Amino acid sequence: MWQESWMVLLMLLFLNVGSTSFPPVPVGNNTTLQCSFPVPIGNDLRIHWHHYLNGRRAIVHSYYNGTEQLKDQDEAFHGRTKLSLPGIQQGDASLTLTDLRPSDRGDYKCIVVNGGYFRTSNISLQVSAPYDQPQVRILSRIGENVTVECSSKGGMSEVRMVWRDEMGNTLEALEAPVVVRDQWEICEVRSKLTVTVKRDIAVCCCLTPEPQAEEMKACESIAAIQKQEVPSLLYLKIVIVISTFILLGVGAFWAVVRRQRSLQPGKSCGSLHQAQDQRWSQTALGFWDIHTEPRLSVNLPWV
């Protein structure tokens, strides 16, 4: 055992290969860390993968005695690492890491011991975890005072969260945004704001994960409380409406009375209309009675 440790130490000190870095890989994805060695394979082939983060070393995966050895594997990597056994026969010691977590970021070292051959490869892994679109909700409402909350989750980096009105003016929050990290170092950020609503307004929560990142924004519309009308004004409106109906009724009544007075006594409207029609007919036809049928008298010679 001490001989193996001594050889690995020499390899780390003198046979280190330059570090390789790749673009950030999103949380939850899989990635493969490349590592290779020359063939043929000796009987004492050993492959070790180590992880370094914040000064801490963790054993990620090991292979020796012709099989994978996981008894010393760090708990954080259980069930998430894999070597290609057919690939090992071709000189491929690449490690596949699944379901990436924020804590997987950092430096990885591939150590290969194959007979008299020693080699180490360093790979820098970056893991990206974008924040979710912020969500705004109303927490409470007391009269004209409304308290709203903005929240977002999913990121790892520092974040800037500010409140703005519909005109883009900055609003003062009750307190600084609260950031909570879970066991996987995923952040959740929350902020509260209290506003006095005298008219319909909109408040917006603006989230910027990094200075270079694009700002994300979510807005919430808040309606003002409709005030009740003054009772005296309401009574005045009722009196005006009732008075209007009374005046309309009186006017209609007098119109009927005037019409009845214009009619001749003892005659119905129908007879008056007939008399007027007859007078108009006589005037137009030279006093000819259109209601009297003309009579024709003819003297026949044989009668």
From TrEMBL:
Every Ig-like domain range: 28-124
Entry GO CC: membrane
One Pfam short name: C2-set_3
Segment forming the signal sequence: 1-21
Main location: membrane
Transmembrane segments: 234-257
One annotated GO biological process: regulation of T cell activation
SMART domains, A to Z: IG
Domain of life: Eukaryota
Keywords, ordered alphabetically: Disulfide bond, Glycoprotein, Immunoglobulin domain, Membrane, Signal, Transmembrane, Transmembrane helix
Localization: Membrane
The name this protein goes by in its record: Ig-like domain-containing protein
